[in-house]
Design a protein that fits this description.
With 525 residues, the protein is α/β, with parallel strands linked by helices. The protein folds into three domains: 252 residues, 3-Layer(aba) Sandwich (Aldehyde Dehydrogenase, Chain A, domain 1), CATH 3.40.605; 181 residues, 3-Layer(aba) Sandwich (Aldehyde Dehydrogenase, Chain A, domain 2); 28 residues, no CATH class. It is 38% helix and 20% strand. The chain is built from 14 helices and 25 strands. It has a seven-stranded mixed sheet, with helices on both faces. Strands 23-8-7-24-25 form a five-stranded mixed sheet, with no helix packed on it. Helix 1 crosses helix 7. The structure holds NADP nicotinamide-adenine-dinucleotide phosphate. The site of NADP nicotinamide-adenine-dinucleotide phosphate has 28 residues, from helix 7, helix 8 and helix 11. Keywords: Oxidoreductase. GO terms for molecular function: oxidoreductase activity, acting on the aldehyde or oxo group of donors, NAD or NADP as acceptor.
Length: 525
């Protein structure tokens, strides 16, 4: 399939009319063909008008039709074959096995949402039947279900060119909820975006849906992206990326005549607490697990373990020494974009200049452009607590170890942290009470708490939470990974005293969708 450099507005391939972007292969620093001219206000207008026109019919599709559409998207992405894999490798610098795995995850994610849609639990049907004889006042017949919010703008993430991009988690969950989607492609991987966008458009056509269910725009975030978020027909936004980018979108969404929710996943340093008995018993294995997690994918995961917290003493010194040795032997790895590499270098520069961040190890020298050398730093809890700069995310394979005097100082360090996606505890039986004492603080700080594991690797499943208090996300009440992500794009509507014929299928008296309703306060079997 030849790449065209065109956007997709519904089923129409359109050439943009603003400055063109060209992907750069970060492994060579060379540009890739073709050029992708950016869209402008008129394209945002067309895509939004089409998405609005598609909304009522798409939202009214049966659960079976919508689920089949999500399954077809997965089939169409798989049918792209090696061309997609090669392009994604070239545009991201990520190794082929990682991209193959990510395609698998993307398709599994779509099929998981298809299963979720079919099951219908997300409609959260609640029925309080009429009580005409109730004294002193009768009760009306009240029925509640969830409905889709409306067209959603999705910003593709740089670090997951498939699984959190054009047909990634935000798109899958919004489409599952019944919302048309307009994607603002990430400028780092336009070719991958075009290929996947065309696969989605084919799925729309094969499923005989309104063409406005999906559009794909290229161009600058500050122009096309802000115009999209500001358009009154857009009703919610999904984003993964920098704190400044996420906050710019939140600001634009709040400045609208009708403010809308922005689900922005931004920055997290994912603290790991090493408790004394665990550190004593298996410090070396912990150091190995830590460096493996830290260096995976050049550290370009939102769940990268960037902060280790432990009591000072010989066990921690041994952990640091083993980790430093492993870091020194870790190869440099290509980062996603020259911009992300520069941001990493600048973050490392700030730490190197910091009076209280002591460098303990640097990875092997880079051999090609845009390669990330792993960095490990150590600081004392008093110094960490004195300067918020030490908890700024350095996106890449960099971590800081905080040495604490006692459990109370460990708690203070955690209390001092901003909101996080994850917090990890390494503990043995003798550590359980100290861990229990820390839990109330940890629950306030993070969306996912792990014991004796590593935070990288986020399962797509029903129980997953990939979210957390600001700045991990702009809205801590929900998740961007896993089936609960569908709730971001829903809102409840109550139908009072409706005749059965006017009720949506989910709420009819005969319960034709066979949903497990909350009926008069009791969950149906
Ligand atoms: P980014 O710069 O935030 O870009 C993400 C998307 O948002 C792009 O489509 C971009 O458009 C748009 N955007 C950026 N700033 C904007 C603004 N002020 N107004 C409107 N739209 C805007 O993120 P990135 O390119 O993926 O990476 C840059 C940095 O983000 C990294 O170095 C890292 O620090 C952080 N990051 C964090 C995570 C995480 O999960 N925590 C993940 C990825 C990146 P353009 O196409 O115009 O750039």
């Amino acid at each position: 399939m030849t790449l065209t450099g065109k956007m997709l507005i519904g089923q129409h391939a359109i050439t943009g009319n603003s400055a063109a972007i060209r992907a750069i292969n970060p492994a060579t620093d060379l540009p890739l063909e073709p050029a992708y001219p950016g869209g402008s206000g008129e394209h945002v207008e067309q895509a939004c008008a089409l998405a609005r026109a598609a909304f009522d019919s798409y939202h009214a599709t049966s659960l079976a039709t919508r689920a089949r559409f999500l399954d077809t998207m997965a089939d169409e992405i798989e049918a792209l074959g090696d061309e997609l894999i090669e392009r994604a490798v070239a545009e991201s610098g990520l190794p082929r096995p990682r991209i193959l795995g990510e395609r698998g995850r993307t398709c599994q994610q779509l099929r998981t949402f298809a299963r979720t849609v079919r099951a219908g639990e997300w409609l959260d049907v609640r029925v309080d039947p009429a009580l005409p004889e109730r004294q002193p006042l009768p009760r009306s017949d009240l029925r509640q279900r969830q409905v889709a919010l409306g067209p959603v703008a999705v910003f593709g993430a740089s670090n997951f060119p498939l699984a959190f991009s054009v047909a990634g988690g935000d798109t899958a969950s919004a489409l599952a909820a019944g919302c048309p989607v307009i994607v603002k492609a990430h400028s780092a991987h336009p070719g991958t975006s075009e290929l996947v966008g065309r696969a989605v458009a084919r799925a729309v056509e094969k499923s005989e849906l309104h063409p406005g269910v999906f559009s794909l725009l290229f161009g600058s975030g500050r122009e096309v992206g802000i115009a999209l978020v500001s358009d009154p027909r857009i009703k919610a936004v999904g984003f993964t990326g920098s704190r400044s980018g996420g906050m710019a979108l939140c600001k634009a969404a709040q400045a609208r005549r009708e403010p809308i929710p922005v689900y922005a996943e931004m920055s997290s340093i994912n603290p790991v607490v090493l408790f004394p008995a665990a550190l004593q018993a298996r410090g070396e294995a912990l150091a190995q697990g830590f460096v493996t997690s830290l260096t995976q994918g050049a550290g370009q995961f939102c769940t990268n373990p960037g902060l280790v917290i432990a009591r000072q003493g010989p066990a921690l010194e041994r952990f640091i020494s083993v980790a430093a040795d492993l870091v020194q032997r870790s190869p440099a790895q290509t980062m996603l974009t020259p911009g992300i590499f520069q941001a990493y270098e600048s973050g490392i520069g700030s730490l190197l200049e910091h009076a209280h961040a002591q460098p303990v190890a640097v990875g092997l020298k880079r051999e090609a452009p845009n390669q990330c050398q792993t960095h490990l730093f150590v600081t004392r809890a008093e110094d960490f607590l004195a300067d918020t700069a030490l908890q700024a995310e350095v996106f890449g394979a960099a971590a800081l170890i905080v040495q604490c005097a006692d459990d109370e100082q460990i708690r203070q360090v955690i209390e001092f942290l901003e909101g996080q996606l994850t917090a990890t505890l390494h503990l043995d039986d003798a550590d359980v009470e100290a861990a229990r004492a820390l839990l109330p603080t940890l629950e306030r700080k993070a969306g996912r708490l792990l014991v004796n594991g590593w935070p990288t690797g986020v399962e797509v499943c029903d129980a997953m939470v990939h979210g957390g208090p600001f700045p991990a996300t702009s809205d801590p009440r929900t998740t961007s990974v896993g089936t609960a992500a569908i709730q971001r794009f829903l809102r409840p509507v109550c139908y009072q005293d409706f005749p059965d014929t006017l009720l949506p299928a989910a709420l009819k008296h005969s319960n034709p969708l066979q949903l497990r309703r909350l009926l008069d306060g009791q969950r149906e079997a």
